[in-house]
Description:
The chain is an all-alpha fold. It has one domain (2-315). The protein contains 15 helices and no strands. The protein has helices at residues 2-38, 44-59, 71-97, 100-108, 110-122, 128-145, 154-176, 182-204, 207-213, 215-218, 221-247, 251-258, 261-272, 278-295, 299-315. The longest helix is centred in the N-terminal third of the chain and has 37 residues, at 2-38.
Amino acid sequence: MDQQIELRSSAKKQSLAMVLLLITTILWGSTFIITNKITQIIPPMFYLGVRYLIGFIAFLPFIGRLRKFTKKQFKIGLIAGTLMWASFSVQTIGIKLTTATKSAFITGLSVIMVPIFSAIFFKDKISPRIWISTILALIGVSIMSFIGFENFSIGDLLILICDVFYAIYIIYLSQNLKSIDIIGLSLIIIFLNSFYSFIASILFEDMNYIFNDGAELIFTIENFGILLYMGICATNIATLTQNYGQRHLSPTKAAIIFATEPLFATFFAVLGNELLNLQIIIGGALILIGILLSIEKTETDRSFNSEIELKELNKG
């Protein structure tokens, strides 16, 4: 009886995890057009530094959670934060140098990299259904975002590099989230992202432009409002929902939900200037089909669920 209750609890947690990862992806989708526009004014690394500093300050009331962290858990935070910054920093520069829709498509390639890297590094067995789901999602992203596709640029290459780091980040989190406090981990990750970004800004960006020549353009109420949204909603809330969601879902299933990011990115781009057309509708439909297929029970998912259930039962 107790075991059945635990199993139902685990199923509810996975359902909640899928909803939270979808919220995460919507928040991320909103950032493409915002980042593309604001980095034309604010240098990318300084922008990331301020964004994550705001996120870190908002998390300060929870800093006491770090007292219970072990050296191993701090190490997990250090590695996760470094991987996330490596991914987001090159992505931000890439978004500045290309279009929002184009960057959304290339970012979507991380979806296909997750199961490939999982198979290479951990010899995970990926069920045919998950592969089909992943491929459908990738095709959907391709159809939706191959609109006005220009020549390949340095921005596109940087986002491809972002995909590699991010796929490894997704897998690493999924391997280490089960035994660590989510808020404490988020604090470490957000702090490192701000710290690394400010160091990179000091080393590689024009401080004279930021604090003198471009100060009137950078330090405005409008930009501050944008940075608050990016720091609190797109950073803090998204990090918490992502970390909780990935604790209760397999890496591949999480990656397929993340495949909706270009769908939402294109939606927000349409709210800006782009027009909705048949390509976007067809591409979005294929992505949703891929997600629905991934929700079906597979051997990979049952194996992942059993691991979580055993851990929960052991706690009792």
